[in-house]
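Q: Convert this sequence to structure tokens.
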Amino acid sequence: MKYGIVHALLPGYEISMRQIVKNLQILSVYGLITAVLLISTPASAVVVEHLYEAEIAVSDQTRKTRHEVFKKAFQQTLIKVVGSSRILGNPMIDDARDKVLKYISQFRYRDLPEGFVQPVAAENVEAAAVYTNMLWIKFDVPAINALLSSSQLPVWGRQRPETLVWIAVRDGAQRYVLKRRDISPIKDEIEKAARLRGLPILWPEYDDEDRSRLSFVDLWGGFWDNILTVSRRYDKESMLVGRYFWAGNEWQVKWDLLGDKHQQYWQINSRDLDLLSSAGIDNASDKISPRYALFLRESSGGNFYLDVHGISNTDRYATITTYLRGLSPIKDLNVSEVSAQGMRFKIDAQGSVDDVKRLIALGSLLKPVNVQVTTQHPLQGDVVLAYELR
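A:
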């Protein structure tokens, strides 16, 4: 059924964009969203799903345990939605956490995933907890957004840029660079931390092409000319470099984040790979998110129009609508008019026009143009932003 919706729009012969829009308009809301999500999104960004959900292992199903997990999931989810740990210590967030039930829309218990590893008891602790289930929680999106707005905290939308991750490991006599196809506990912990923070990451191929221009020594020594030259292949706005060194009794990790023409550095020592990886991802997310997260202001939004030149088929239509819906200031959009040049969208926003323009400028899918799409009903006095596909 899901694929049937898309195939119905692609009958094997040319149809006009006006007919495409007519077909799309008769689909149900669920069907339209399904059709859009089946099409790949632009390579410059990733749509992060399940931002307002959390899943945590529990040792029992008592009310006391459930309520404690609700509060933990609430904090975890807010950090993911904001993109930053700045929520910690906010009095309004602390107060809301004590009233967490009003923010929950659904929850259920699930079986532990296959291969789930029970925790090992820490030193000076007789036994570790034994987990029996996963507790899945879905939070109420409007309620969470309203809380963040009243707490003067921003929201980082679903459309998030990928961060390229370079990891060099020196473990005794072993020296290696982690790549996309590797299986590694360090890599597993970094990916787990990235999922918790809603930070999309990309591992390098580190194939013959990469290795011919970038060695382990280059990464370890911070030879940035070589690192940057090879990284251009992946076309990402941010790059996280980690150097893991086993010092005999603990790991020492040096992190560098390069993005927005700024380089930031931090270091952490620990025996715990989970802690080390979280420190890298958490700091990276805290530093990346302010560029994209926006303060939701209901009173400063409203309606305006956005023209996109060059939408000539359903694939491009789906790509554009998926992209625009992922921008946090945009609450909703609808096709207003279609012409041979492209489409005009009516935008319902809770952020300002400048917010939308700033986020689009940070991406690589659209570039501004000075000419509006020619339509049958020219607009007088309304705000119209005009773009074309890159």
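The chain has three domains: 2-38+295-389, 53-150, 162-291.
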